[in-house]
UniProtKB/TrEMBL annotation:
Keywords: DNA-binding, Hydrolase, Nuclease
Organism listed in the record: Dyella jiangningensis
The protein's name in its UniProt record: Exodeoxyribonuclease IX
Cited PANTHER family: 5'-3' EXONUCLEASE FAMILY PROTEIN, FLAP ENDONUCLEASE XNI
Location of the 5'-3' exonuclease domain: 5-270
DNA-binding keyword on record: yes
InterPro entries with a match to the protein in the record: 5-3_exonucl_a-hlix_arch_N, 5-3_exonuclease, 5-3_exonuclease_C_sf, DNA_polI_H3TH, FEN, HhH2, PIN-like_dom_sf
Amino acid sequence: MDTMSRPAVHLIDGSLYVFRAWHSMPDEFHDADGHAVNAVHGFTRFLCELLERVKPEHLAVAFDASLTTSFRNAIYPAYKANRELPPPDLERQFVLCREVAEALGIPVLIDHTYEADDLIGSALWSLRGHGFRSVIVSADKDFGQLLGEFDEQWDYARNLRWGPAGVLEKLGVHPHQVADYLALCGDAVDNIPGVPGIGAKTAAALLSHFGSLDALLERVDEVPFLRIRGAASCAAKLREHADSARLYRQLTRIALDAPVAEQVEAMQRQRRDAAMMDELSERLRFGPLTRTRLKALLTY
């Protein structure tokens, strides 16, 4: 079965697009109680456009429940500690964004132990067994590790799409090496330091030669003989920080065993009552154009 003959499931990194809306939409939208809803309005427009453009039958939107309760925080307390917690106003809007998605009949994935990445990865893994190809709607480089032969990632804002070959082009490593790559060179966004002195190019070169982090650490005595800058120093750093590198990989590897429903039907868009959408639109004070778009999307 080739790529296009496989049914597609669109897996949306909801938190990313809520944050984007929060930063890009002017602070002039308020709900019936006077609370700011600029992120909700922006996220709703994004969902409307995606649904109108793609008309997906199978999809889900995943959200992060918290910055501090992931299993990664238990392993490494400094994980994402560099990020400020969302202000209460944005936390409230996250809840409303989930309401909008549910009112549109879009399955919502959220868990306090697993992050959105893990929920998307677990859904992808399960649906792949049912013959589906996945389209991950996100710009996050971490998702590269999930891309199989028939999958693709879609940076919606830039309208850029890529598959496994695109991961190699962007990072210099294959999808199955992405978690090892990030463990080596670090990920400042998630406060993962990586091995000191090993940058992105060196990490890619090492994985190109050794294939995996485990093989690299097992054969670290070979590193000084490689034709890379500072090879001897690199080998010393790897010996010193081997345990840390293995720990970081536990953080960078997307979990595939998060609690998501394994049935295909769980990722199918559901029909919803127009009255629910009317009430939500009134509460969020959506304009006439947005209300028309939302109602039209209920009759897909």
